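Deviation from plan, reported transparently: 2-phosphoglycolic acid complex.
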Amino acid sequence: MTPRLKIIAGNWKMYTTPTEGDKLADELITALAGIDPGNKRIVVMPPFLHIRSIAERFNGVKHASVGAQNCHFENEGAYTGEISAAMIKDAGAEYVIVGHSERRQYFHEDNALLYKKVSAALAHGLTPIYCCGETLVQRENGSYFEVISKQINEGLFDLMPDMINNVIVAYEPVWAIGTGKTASPEQAQEIHAFIRNLFAGQYGHEIADHVLILYGGSVKPNNAAELFGMKDIDGGLVGGASLNAADFAAIVHAA
Ligand code: PGA
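Because the crystal trials were delayed, the predicted structure below was used instead.
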C-alpha cells in the first residue's frame, strides 16, 4: 500500500478580521517556508470573508491549500446569509469542513443535513472534511462507538464508492475541543481504527486503507508528534494552535 498523506488543517473558527487574517497568512507562509512538505498537505481554513485573499497569498505555496469551515447544500437560492459550495470553490477554496461539533451544537446540524452538504461539496470538486465525535457524557456512559457509527453511517455512507474516495474524516471528541484536554494517542487510535473498520465494512478494504482520518481536539506542538505517530491517524484538524504561526508550523513539522 502507498503511504497515506498527512493533512494538517488549521480551523481558524470565527477569529481574525480580514486584515488580521492576511497578516496571519503571511506569517504562516514565512513560518512554513523552511519545512520540507514531504507527503504532508497543509490546509488553512479561515472565515469565508478571507478565503479569496488568503487563497491568492497561498497561490504558489506548494502543498498548501485553503478551505472553508462550512457551506450550504444548495448551489444558490433564497437562503439569506448562507454561502454555497460553488461560491467558496470559486473564491479559491479546495476543502470544506462539514459537521464540526460547533455547527452540530449551536446550529442544530444533523447527520441528514450534513449528508446533503457533503454531497454539495463533492459536486463542486471540494474535499469535505467530515467531523464526528462524542460528547463527554457519551464518552463516560460508553455510548461513543454507537454515536460515531451513526454519524459516519448517516452522514457519509449513502455516497457511491467513487465519491467516498474524496472524503476526509476528522475525529474530534467534543470534550477535547478547546479544552486543553487531548485524547490520549491510544484513545484516538482506538476510534480511528474503529472508523476505518466501518469504512471497510461498507466499502471494502481498498477504500478503507486509503481514507484519511484526522484527529482534532487540543492538538498542540507538544502532543502532535505522538498523536500523528499512531497507525490510523493521518494528521490533524487544529483549532486554537492554528492561530499562531509558530505553533502551527511546529505542528506541521511534527507530522
Ligand atoms: P482546538 O479545536 O484545537 O482548539 O481544540 C479543534 C477544532 O475545533 O477543530
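The CA atoms of residues 95 and 127 lie 5 Å apart. We consider this an acceptable substitute for the interim report.
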